[in-house]
Amino acid sequence: MKMLVKKAQKGDADAFVALIESCKSSMYRVAKGFFRSEDDIADAISDAVLSAWEHISDLRRAEFFKTWLIRILVNSCNQMMRERKNCDLVEVLPETRYLEQEFSDVEFREMLSSFPEDCQMILLLYYGEQFTTREIAGILGIRENTVKSKLYRTRGALRDVLVNSL
């Protein structure tokens, strides 16, 4: 991947496309954590890809490309959410966040949706995308200890729910 990043930084569009292809499922899952609509997901990913292409030369360490790209995507999703809050909507639909399209157990999704949004995103990035707590802290712009404590508390709450349901 480092070689592709170096090529993309020199302006090689094919290398950049290959990098995006390698990260597209992760990007989709993260955007799906923010939005229900496929159009919104596509818009957020498109904005993130465009921004990444425009700023690929700013990436200092090639090995952190995926983390950098996901950070751009999270920022894009947050920006879209802020813009929505400023708009007058004719019809307000409840926002429901889904972590994984592949989850077939509806009860599990409902259980996760009972957690605060920031905890859901941490669970998605940690378990769904296998990012480290340090990488998650960088992506979300919070301290690593905050990520660790939220992960610890969420695991405990999840354990309690599972034990009580048995």
Task: Tell me about this structure.
The protein has 166 residues and is mostly helical. The chain folds into 2 domains: 1-83, RNA polymerase sigma factor, region 2, helix turn helix motif (Rna Polymerase Sigma Factor, Chain: A), CATH 1.10.1740; 103-166, Arc Repressor Mutant, subunit A. The chain is built from 8 helices and no strands. The chain has helices spanning 2-9, 13-34, 38-55, 65-86, 106-113, 117-128, 133-140, 144-165. The longest helix has 22 residues, at 13-34. The termini are far apart.
In short:
By secondary structure, this protein is mostly helical.
Strands, helices and their partners?
Layout: H1 2-9, H2 13-34, H3 38-55, H4 65-86, H5 106-113, H6 117-128, H7 133-140, H8 144-165
Helix pairs in contact: 1-2, 2-3, 2-4, 2-6, 3-4, 4-7, 7-8
